[in-house]
Amino acid sequence: MKQSESGVDIQKRVERKLMLHVASIVFLLYFFFAIDRGNIGFAALQMNDALGLSAEVFGWGSGLFTLAYLLFQAPNAELLRRLGASRGFAIIACAWGLVSTSTAFVPDQFWFLVNRFALGMAEAGFHAFMIYYISRIFPKRVRGYAVGVSFVAVPCSMIVASPLSGALLDVDWASLHGWQSLFILEGVPSVLMGLLCLKLIPDTPADAKFLNDEERAWLIGELSQVADQSEHTGALRNIREAAFNPMVWALGFVLFTMVLAINVMTIWMPLMIRQVSGAGNLAVGALNSLPWITFSIGCLIAGRSSDKVKDRATPLRISVAIATFGFFCSAALQESSTAFAFAAFLLACLGAGGAQGVFWALAMQLLEGRAAAAAFAMITVVGSGSGVFAHPLIGSLHDSTGSFGGLVWTLAAFYIAALATLHWISRARTPNNPDDASNGLQPDAAK
């Protein structure tokens, strides 16, 4: 009994230290990653006029970003895996930070489009490698919460950056306009964070200097046991298996829907709020932070609850259902009551955040083995594909109709399809691991 209690104590200490020393660093990386991706939405309030960008051209910039993000997703993720966590995270953070900073100096439409494509190249692979890294260093029982904490960085970045970006737009620094100062002051921290990763991020559990010998041995043994189990439960052994696995494509479509909602919140929300309310820059920033607050609450609640009950599927379905209901209500109310439509949109963001907090924990549970990084990259590619078509389409529709009205209906329709896809995933998998039988979603046995 004493030995068992000692083992539990070691487990708790290791998990606490991993959250403090690893999850916190990944959180900060994702925090600056999200800021450098999303600050274009606020810069557009001034930049579009300064560079003569129409909504359609602005949409094409986001589309080209996503295209590059897709094309370089898998090769970048594989390169990062080979480099190791410390060097990989350092290089990619410095790369996107420098490119984002350079956006302040684009002179016209052409170089704006080139810059957005370059930023997509620089950011590609980070997300998939982050998921892979978490699956390789965190015990299985806390991966859901670790992913949730990491993804909360996205709404937190918007909560912080929204009022900050709104304020920066009103400040001319030296000979620079507000939108130019915004890119510089929000891009440089990513470079500094990348350099810190060389010292702070352990490549493997064996490199975790913040653990003592006993804790390190426990973590290595725990992860080795999980790896041995995955070899007998249909783990993905190579990239070909990942590419032809229907679960990868089904999860990819669910992520497609989730990314569509996040892109709308990140890129188009400030313009939508400005059009509906006519508020100033600072007020737009404050209002823009509200959806991200509800998003972060949903992300943490769903991630923690899925760890406690060892059930990744049910919280995901509930979250997607809440988001679907919220988007439908928001779309239906937008003509009659702007306030109630916005409240319904906040409810939808709560559900969308919950889905984000659980999705990758479920993917890590379903897709294990040597080719897991490739599978995560493919899911990310499919999911991020929404940006290639959605942003130009949204911009074009806005230019022709003068409204973002159809956008919320589109989100509602996609979430209905995602809910149906999750139902298929539940029926397509049968439990073959008694410990995880509650979710009914386990990999098929190797054939």
Q: Can you tag this structure with a few keywords?
A:
Growth Hormone, Chain: A, 447 residues, globular, disordered N terminus, 18 helices, disordered C terminus, single chain, mainly alpha, 0% strand
Topology, pairings included?
Layout: H1 2-51, H2 55-71, H3 73-83, H4 85-102, H5 109-123, H6 126-137, H7 143-151, H8 153-168, H9 178-200, H10 213-231, H11 239-243, H12 246-277, H13 281-309, H14 313-333, H15 338-366, H16 372-384, H17 386-401, H18 405-428
Short description:
80% of the residues lie in helices and 0% in strands.
Describe the structure.
With 447 residues, the protein is mainly α. It has a single domain (2-436), classed as MFS general substrate transporter like domains (Growth Hormone, Chain: A, Up-down Bundle). Helix content is 80%, strand content 0%. It has 18 helices and no strands. The longest helix has 50 residues, at 2-51. The protein is globular. The two termini are 41 Å apart. Mean pLDDT is 81; it is low at 1-5, 230-234 and 430-447. This is MFS transporter. It holds the Pfam family MFS_1. It is a multi-pass membrane protein. Residues 22-429 form the Major facilitator superfamily (MFS) profile domain. It is found in: Membrane.
